[in-house]
Amino acid sequence: MYAVAVAKCTDLTSNLWNLRGKTICSTAMGDLAGEYFGQSCVPGSLDYDYNKLKTNPRALCLRCYA
Q: Which pTM does this prediction carry?
């Protein structure tokens, strides 16, 4: 699994270590480094298929809006 982050060269967060805890939006569960980032929108992250043990952090849905 790979994750891709894009930032402007002049942005102080362009270093991968500085992105830890930042807000992200993703297309779906299973295509990002979930717990590395902070509040996110990862559709399906709390669905049973991806969260059978109910251990996925709620932060993965805090930026989703219906």
A: 0.51
